[in-house]
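Q: My labmate handed me this sequence with no annotations at all. I'd like to see what the chain might look like in three dimensions before we decide whether it's worth expressing. Could you predict it?
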Amino acid sequence: MALPMGMWTVPLGNVMLAFQKGHLLPWVLATGGISAFISPLVIGALADQRVSPTLILRWLSLATSLLLALVCRAIKAGWSDAAILACALAMSLVSTPMWGLGSSVVLSQLRQPGRQFGPVRAWATIGWMAGGWLVSYVLHSDSSVLSGYVAAGFWLVVTAFTCTLPIIPPPDAGGHRGWKQILGLDALDLLRDPNHRMVFITAALYTMPLAAFYPYCVRHLKELGVPGPTGIMTLGQITEVLVMIVLANLMTRFRLKWVFLSGIAFGLLRYLVFMLGTPSWIITGIVLHGLAYTLYFITTQIYLEDRIPTIQRARAQALLTLLSSGVGNLAGFLGSGLWLAYCEKSNGGHVPWSTFWGGLALATGFVFLFFALFYKGRGRHLENS
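A: Here is what I predict for the chain of 385 residues:
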């Protein structure tokens, strides 16, 4: 799944600019946030209670392939802004739940998720990297909808691959359910636990400044004249893979609070490095992305698998998707788009990248202090607190 995601998500900003739709980019990205309020909890509840997660994943990947091709057609043919947004929203509605659902399928097959998930999840990161390399160095389509059409083809490959997966029965099948259970809203009960609440809320807050990384870093690289910006962006996935390999050891040796905080700290450092503005420093910041992402979000997925009852795990992953991809990305994409427009307008039509990245560093610093002050964990006397 990560390969076609990377092929379309990373170059999207430059593709929109190439077709004179740059003004639409924050809104196209925001469709993913809107979708995260609608589909993940419903799909998560369906996977927990009614239909095998494997079957749901199969149909969602097929629908994503068809709708991504439609989005590419809309952009290339010069359809209206409203039509492009409608197509993007339709695609987001079916693609947004897949990441959390795929994680649930993988985690359900692991005997020791805390130790095994990191290395398994690293293969998804390798797929994302391969997608970036294909776009920049094989297809040479960093600003072309060709990247999207080929990604749609790979979604068909994902659909075929799901046919080889075991049909996992829903873990909470049977019994009477009210409307809250049918819609998956009972997952909100997880927020009553103070530790769960802090992890979920911080995921939403941290995603807000993080959302600016892919759409605007690739644009910054292009303005600096760096060739193959989509391929360069995959350097962050190299460190992501390395961190996933050692993540289980880190979670055993250190309190979870310090693992979480280290991820946010690297996110802050990444934007501070971006402020220096030279190609070498931008590339250094991209390398830091793997640490910034993995040490918080992959740790969160493992945390949920370890701390949440089995019958609620798909819904817990869906709630994480809602808060990060929904609340976080929606606010992050729109907010960073407005912030970029303000910076550009204040600087005579040219983006003052140091100011732009500095604002995001400030926001990330706030998230770091928030989590450091309010997350308590299980206590120092307990391992992995």
